[in-house]
Amino acid sequence: MTCPECGGAGRARFPVRDRLFGTTARSFEIATCAACGLQFLWPQPSAEELSGFYPAGYWMGPSDRRPAA
Length: 69
Hints:
Layout: E1 10-16, E2 28-33, E3 39-42, H1 47-51
Antiparallel strand pairs: 1-2, 2-3
């Protein structure tokens, strides 16, 4: 995996998913660049895919919503 900032080698750290709305059908990793230390999502989603992760009202403010188990 390549760092989007400096082009250095990234290392996968841990898997992530959307526990609040369940919008992430595929799995992603948080990666850390060995050269500059940037943490980034890998693989990086396309612009079209990214827009699907934020449905209307994704962050409306404080609420009683809780992450799904």
